[in-house]
Input
Amino acid sequence: MIRNNAPDSLIAKSDMAFEAACRKVIDRARAANTEIVIWRDGKIVELSPDEATAELEANLAKRDSEPAS
Output
């Protein structure tokens, strides 16, 4: 994967925006006591806000542990 770790790179900015959007969706679902609906492997999947938070954190940790190319 091609990554530029400079904080002002477009990739870094888009990563931050995507993370913020994910957290906003999770917060809204938690406030409304609803599930978060996603598309995964050709199927509709419903996640609780806690499950979505856990997946987000795991994916961010995985992304951050990958060496930059």
